[in-house]
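Subject: for your reference before the review

Hello V.,

The reviewers asked for a structural picture of the protein, and I figured it would be easier to keep everything in one thread rather than splitting it across files. Below is the amino acid sequence we used in the manuscript, unchanged from the supplementary table.
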Amino acid sequence: MTLAPGPPQYDPDRGVRRVFGPLFAAACLLATSSGVVVLSILLGAVVAELIRGAKGGSAIAMLGSLMSRMQSSEPGLSGFRAGIAGSLWLLGLVASFSIPVGVGAAVFLEEFAPPGRIRRVIQLNIANLAGVPSIVYGILGLAAFVRAFGVKALALDKSLWAGSLTLSLLILPVIVIATQEALRTVPPSLRQAALALGASRWQVVRDHVLPSAMPGVLTGVILALSRAIGETAPLLMVGAAGAILTLPEGPSSRYTALPVEIYNYATEPDPEFKAVAAGGILLLLALLLTMNATAIVIRNRYARSSRG
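And here is what came back from the structure prediction:
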């Protein structure tokens, strides 16, 4: 006995596909192109302002002088040496705090924490914290680290400790979420094979899961640190100095940061400071690109070694 063929379960409308497919592709291209065009215009305006401020001289030489000079009330003597040093200190301290804690939290939640209501609540809070405005973290850092809720013995004052801990809180949710997504891309068969050969749960995570997920983890770390190094509002809240003429000598020193100095120069009434602010923007971009390029090279080498 044969059954009569029924109506097709799926009847693609190729005419609609032919019309809306190219339209969707054109919309995606337009969205991408508009972002690139806007960024190019902004970068061109910054470069043009720097060239104008060089007054016929070399823009590269002006950038070099901005890197070696301290802050000044004279446009021709101004620079970002203290801000660059402070940003490098912040970058190192933030990476030291946030990467171990963020990656460790993600590994625990993804590989060891039992499923249940508590885990769901933690995941929901982490996802919500990733979208909190940075100024809120600045207020939290002011209360928790700078003033220690009124306990003077624990207060970190306006030091690099307070700034780096505040920025670490800011990027922790990003690192946790990115690490969890990277861990989820590791196939379950890899875990099962290692367990079947007698490896413990920690050995499976340490020797197999984390190395396989490391390229994705490094990508999340790159994005998180890039966000931290460009933040201004939290640092203003926790007391980054607007004008300082000394370099930080340690984590307990007063400091300023490159975005804070750029903000201060951009708000000066003298139009000559616009070229100084433009130079600071390019220095910040160069710092970000150098940091990202280094991390990408490390990530790619790690990916090749794990595949080999």
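For the response letter, the relevant points are probably these. The chain has a mean pLDDT of 87. The CA atoms of residues 67 and 81 lie 5 Å apart.

Happy to draft the paragraph if you're swamped.

O.
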